[in-house]
Task: structure prediction
Amino acid sequence: MSATKGPITKFPAEDLRPARRYISTHNKDGKGVFIADDDGDHHRLMVQGQAVANIIYSTKGNPIDMNNEADIAYAKNNEPAIHVPNGSVARLIDFAPGMESPIHRAMSLDYGVVIEGKFLFSLDSGESKVMLPGDCSVNRGCMHKWKNLDEEKSGRMLFILLDVTPLTVNGEVIGEYLGDLAGDYADVAH
Result:
């Protein structure tokens, strides 16, 4: 984990309720049972303690192989980078009060859902939208940033990232750009 220099020192942020993860599978009789009731396998402080990420689950391949719980082993043993090539990532991020992310682009299709708080979703064109709990974004490889608009309380978002084929814009293939977030993923292998 990155060194903490801000108000968040662990998942969850101190002023947000713990988030639970429940994973199901089948028992010997073919009935659904829960095999996990926890807060995830991978947590990472980000942006010098201004945010913390909790990986809910990640997968490789499409379709996903759930036989012999191969997907469960992959999710437990692999902390993903920003996204998983040919896979998916479900990530909760707690943002400190007033925190604004660096501008960045993951080469993925990103679903963003506000869980708690009020956020500003801004694009490099200057356009932006205010998002409230339950609001969803679908970011298709655009440069963007997030800001927790509450100056007093942490906010939480859920992001689902899916891998994409190379994206061509105006005749040029565009790439991932993490900017100041690059260090937060530097020791995570793709």
Notes: The longest helix spans residues 70-77. The CA atoms of residues 114 and 157 lie 5 Å apart. The radius of gyration is 17 Å.
